[in-house]
Amino acid sequence: MAPDERTLEGWDPGPIAGGTLAEVVERAFDYRGDVTLVRRDGAELVGYLFNRDVDAPTPFVQVFAAAGGDPVTIPYADIRSIRFTGRDTAAGNSYAAWLRSREAAKAAGSARGA
């Protein structure tokens, strides 16, 4: 199942591997909400995926756990799935919407200065 292009919120790609894993990791890295990483041993970690390195000798992701504490590093080989379980804080906030709000703020500032 492909994710909704407007938001990944709620997307569960199921078990993933290989090139698909790298693609899902990239989507999770760009996601502005928490994800749930499911490890091959069944353990789950909920948190914000803030770093990844597919080119490292042992490719890995790094996550700030929702429960707190130090960042957690997980090798790609230990990841069975990544579910997009947290609220997508950027949903509906496209660059175009941001640009419109910025232009409106500039216009309001210019109107006050006139």
What does this structure look like?
This protein is α+β, with helices and mostly antiparallel strands. It has one domain (18-113): Roll (SH3 type barrels). It is 28% helix and 26% strand. It has two helices and five strands. It has helices at 18-30, 95-113; strands at 35-39, 44-53, 60-65, 72-75, 79-83. A five-stranded antiparallel β-sheet has the order 4-3-2-1-5, with helices on one face. β2 and β3 (60-65) form a beta hairpin. The longest helix is centred in the C-terminal third of the chain and has 19 residues, at 95-113. The termini are far apart.
What is the CATH domain class? Mainly Beta
Please state roughly what percent of the residues sit in beta strands, choosing from under 5%, 5-15%, 15-25%, 25-35%, 35-45% or over 45%: 25-35%
Strand and helix order? HEEEEEH
Head-to-tail CA distance between termini: 54 Å
Low-confidence stretches: none
Strand order, largest beta sheet: 4-3-2-1-5
The profile of the biggest β sheet is:
5 strands, antiparallel
| CATH architectural grouping | Roll
Query: Would you tell me which CATH topology applies?
Result: SH3 type barrels
Number of helices: 2
| Helical residue percent band | 25-40%
Gross morphology: elongated
Task: Give a brief description.
The protein contains two helices and five strands. It is α+β, with helices and mostly antiparallel strands and 114 residues long. It has a five-stranded antiparallel beta sheet with strand order 4-3-2-1-5, with helices on one face.
